[in-house]
Design goal:
Low-confidence stretches: 1-12
Radius of gyration: 21 Å
Number of strands: 12
Strand content: 15-25%
Helix content: 25-40%
Oligomer: single chain
Strand order of the largest sheet: 6-7-8-3-9-10-12-11
Amino acid sequence: MTLTDSTAPAAPSTPPQAFLEVRDLKVSFPTEDGLVRAVDGLTFNVERDQTLGIVGESGSGKSVTSQAILGLHKGTTARVTGEIWLEGQDLVAMSADEIRPLRGNKMAMIFQDPLSSLHPFYRVGAQIVEAYRVHNDVSRAAAKARAVEMLDRVGIPNPAKRFDDYPHQFSGGMRQRAMIAMALVCNPELLIADEPTTALDVTVQAQILELIKDLQREFHSAVIIITHDLGVVAETADEVVVMYGGKCVEQSDVRTTFYEPQMPYTFGLLGSMPRLDRGRKERLIPIPGAPPSLINVPKGCAFHPRCVYKDRVRGADCNRDVPDLLPVSVNHLVRCHMSAGERTEVFNTEIRPKLEVGR
């Protein structure tokens, strides 16, 4: 796993090795105020039966990445470069007409807000039928039977009756289940879930995450979970990409993310995560400041204006040079000017004690 910030001409493409390979993906949007570099050189792989968690604050580039994979930027002013290989097909090189048959069939997405994603004037069942018939030459009766089956599979009670309900007649959790049914009705091989548990109570959150895992096991799908909630990542992901300012700042397996992180931004995410084993009066540890504007990303390390450990780096590296994403161990990449020894010491002495269970 590597990521390059070089603007030199790309080397000839090598055949993809993973089911989904994203290579040096860059997505930018020209605006009147300047160029928004929403994603700036992102690389990762996802295999079948594997779940990748992409985490970061709002504005870090998570959702733009998922939209690029689905080809949703085609036909817009967005500038997309790099490569996105899905089972040997380069999605970036495809036209909008070429990628459209894959969307909803080979790859699908559960959007963040099901109320705005479902059409308010059409019955829920009819929308699932339409999604199925676009990719399958079947009768309306057969499509309805498939839709009712999927509503039942995702836990909608009395699915044959609820088939004819409108989105506003569903609760938030049921709308999210209906969105999952629509996304999975064609058995996609890649499922992207963008904040799938936002605005749901914790009981429904757990049910939705368990549902996604169950359906993944059945269909052997590759899954990408996009979230700002590290609790969701701990529950679902195998690998984790931490994004900040449009870049990957740390990438590792999920255990390393929680027990051996190396990036100060990851420290901050862990410290600000609510835990049931903390005392009720114990305060969370917020990350100071706010995420950067993607039009005017700070020079050097994008995180340095908020980093409380930048004084551990000699010279002006933090506010002058963009750190490379470098390996610190097998399958563990970190973007930080601090030495690996310094980062480990900071985590073990300052961060780990605050995260220990039972405090």
